[in-house]
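Record pair follows.
FIRST:
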Amino acid sequence: MDMGRRTLSPDGALLLSIVVLVLALEGSSQWGIEAAAEVRSSTSRRRSRRTIGATCDVFEGRWVMEPSYPLYNASESCPFIEREFSCLRNGRPDLLYTHYRWQPLNCNLARFDGQAFLERLRGKTVMFVGDSLSRNQWQSLTCMIHSSVPNAKYNVTRQDDVSTFAFTDYGVKIMLDRNVFLVDVVKEDIGRVLKLDSILGGKLWKDLDMLIFNTWHWWNRQGPTQPWDYIEVGKKLYKDMDRMAAFEMALKTWGGWVDSNVDPSKSTVFFQGISPSHYNGTLWGEPKAKRCVGQKEPLLGSTYPGGLPPAVGVLKSVLKNITKPVTLLDITNLSLLRKDGHPSIYGLSGRTGTDCIHWCLAGVPDTWNEILYNLIL
């Protein structure tokens, strides 16, 4: 008998195939478990960051259910959160919207770690510059840090339009400059003048370690809420003009400020992107929806049916022509998918108004900040 060429019976061959398959599946399963654990380790976070910087667009993805979210309980952990964003404190009964996590298509985001954030920025100053959406993100970030490192001492101060949240043990300041147009609005004899080519307010931003800019939602204001009477371009005054054109001119003025005043070796610049609103249910395939009222779940998938607002294209066009590095936090599409994330009737005005512009905290701005965290660490 040739022992080197022994032939298995049909039953033996079947048994061997089953054993091989089981071993393969066990190996695959064990690899999956180890890989999942690895994702949670600091080594994996470094690997994820390399992937993000090299090949992964973190702004392309979808929302997935995550039982371990939200990252904090705003009502219990962060008493400084303003009523405008405190949806649970204002009586919102549903919690499902707080349990979603953004999952990029081709990589993983490291979970926010307030201790790591403070160590990375020890002795540095971060400033958000913009409107109430900047305040939304500023409050989100300060709450994320405080709830992550609850014993770290902090104080909050305000002078004029500048608010400062200081983590004194680390020498870290998270600041907010309320400046809704970025360019100047000046009171003159004829009234309030929006000067599209003047940016004297930029003196507050010079030489800071990190700047996160935002402007958009005030550009279409009319009537009593419009905070200017005239628009000035060069030496010419206009009672009004195409608002998108005005927005673009202001962005170019801001871009000129960045190129003239930012030293990339000392300062990192971000632009928040265009935070969307949800007042028209037709845009997300629900024409009978009463704005964002009663919305409890995000849209599935990765694409918003109504497309991106035109302001996004204008912003990206201007950013391309800025010579100094500016990173766009391209949060528009991922936020468009979150029709459920607004205060709605649980905001500042309660049931007398419907806020489908700002975001509940905990909520969507936490994802903006988690992406920011992944980009800077």
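SECOND:
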Amino acid sequence: MTAVMNAKRPRALSFGNLWISAAIIAVLLLYPVFFGKAMNFGVSTVLFAGLAMSWNILGGWAGQTSLGHAALLGVGAYTMTLLATPERGPAWLQALGIGNGAAIAPWWGILAGMVIAVLLSLVWGALTFRLQGSYFTLSSIAVALILRLVAINEDFTGGSQGLFMPELPTFFGLDLFDRKVEYGLAVGFVVLTLLVTHIIRRSRTGYALQAVREDEDGARALGIDPVRMKLIAFAISAALTALGGGIYAIYLQAFEPHTLLELPLSVQIALMAIIGGRTTLQGPVIGAVVLAVFGEVFRNLFSSANLLIYGVLILVVTLFAPGGIMGLFNRKGRRLGTAR
């Protein structure tokens, strides 16, 4: 109860945060100018930055550590791809005449994937949000594994071989398979998640999520329904993750459940937010860049020891910056302000 009473309502975006966000967006926009030959790295890094921010809405602001977000990523990717190739639809849809029609444009497929992800998150959350701590984390892994098994064993999902992206219509005259176009979509995804996080941060919902994160019993005593607030956070996080999944499918052009729905992918998304700083506006972006750079630098030196790198980073952050990289900077900034 004391933690809830001490929780401060999220303030409007300060000039410091505004400039940091503007600087990040400016750097992202200038990346193709200076690193045009490294667009694969740019697209994947920016995409995962947006996915980490999407995860942070649930894992940071609501305090619910999920290791099953790869499932939501897969929902967006599979839905968009299957609707673009309706002949692969499941038998029961074809029996209704839905799977035999014309291909659906990818933007409508991504929107459908977002709707399905939201519905899944509401059912998923209703069943698991009464569990707390590590129990919810374990349940998120279980749900993701179930969806992975479905994708592997069903014919319409391509089974273990996965799906190949068909030829897609142009988007306002732009080729969606062009790396620079995909990079633009990834930057737009980051800007959208940044805007949504800012709106949540300033709203009553942000204040309620902070209260639930700090002390559920205390929040309940103040008239806040913890399950309802966590469901709202989960639904927003799921929709944004599915959006990123659709863009990720276009970027990959071919994917399989063994890579798209694996636990390490969920762990990677969560680590980016944790290392960058939970409940911070720009932390997940910083975390995504740090992990991506470390992964590229050490990939040739340590071969398949990426998990070792992640473990070392977690240890360093836990010991020296428990609030993440941005949390460390914010704390030092407050100390400097107090000293002045």
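COMMENT: Residues 9-15, 336-340 have pLDDT under 50 and may be disordered.
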